[in-house]
Design brief:
Elements lengths: L2 H13 L2 H27 L6 H26 L7 H17 L4 H25 L6 H19 L4 E2 L3 H8 L1 E2 L2 E2 H19 L1 H11 L1 H6 L4 H27 L1 E2 L7 H11 L11 H20 L4 H33 L1
Antiparallel strand pairs: 1-4, 2-3
Amino acid sequence: MTRGASSAFENAGRIFHPDLILPLLRRFGPLLALLLMSGALAVLSPHFLTFDNVLNVFRQSAINALLALGQLLVIITAGIDLSVGSILGLCCVAVAMLLKAGVPTLAAVVATFALGTALGMTNGLLFTKLRLPHPFIPTLGMMNVARGLALVLSGGFPISELPEEFRFWGAGALGGIPMPVIIVLVVYAVFHLFLTRTTLGRDLYAIGGNKQAVLLAGIPVDRRLILVYAVSGGLAALGAIILAGRMNSGFPLAGVGAELDAIAAVIIGGASFFGGVGTVWGTLVGALIMGVLRNGLNLLDVSAYWQTTVIGIVIVVAVWVDVLRQRAVERRRVLRA
């Protein structure tokens, strides 16, 4: 082999070294997947890239995007929140009941947001104060409690015909842009700054990366975790307010299975179940991937049963890829030691 060829191989090895490729894939892989999926659907369906359908994808992705953002904060700390779908359903019923009882729109919205935040805070308190081994346990319990309360309070029936001014939150628009899309972009921008520019945000990554080291550093881990679960519940409540406004009703079964879509969006967006990794904008791309996938399957007239199967496969693949990424990280760590 000539010296020039040898040098070329060495340069290629440096360019495609795992230490360079894996971070790039984690950062830009979801966006590439979204573009490829959108391109394929544009070829398969002439309606996919129409202006109305693109707006519809954004509008339909808004609820999952909010749930996924809360789930991101939890997953960054190496936790999980299985209750967000049920909190969404309960808050849908709660805001509808308040409005039907004559409570002013703003007061009903604030009270519903407070309810979701309180339920999330309860998850955090149960997890930290009872010293449970994993948040799976309290959030699974809250999932059933919240869903049961939604059914009890509503009698199992939707609460419809809500005030017109309330519908603006879910069905209104500003400058032709759906209100849910505006809300999501503003909330995501705020949380991007929170995670990247504040000490508290950096603490969350540290907790997910090495909880024991953070404890030794004197950082109040329990308070951080309680805050994270409270925010997750609050974002679920915000999603409920938007959904109730869009549907003009409080549906007690709203959000069934939504926690899985939210988790999938976070993992597809580059976060890791093992904690310490994840970005706000990656999660938004993950939520859009889920929205594009559902929208595309509908346009292609795929049966609802098969849609559920496909979404399940996507979730399994996302988790599998996350495990492979973590194994690659561990191998590199061992080799460096």
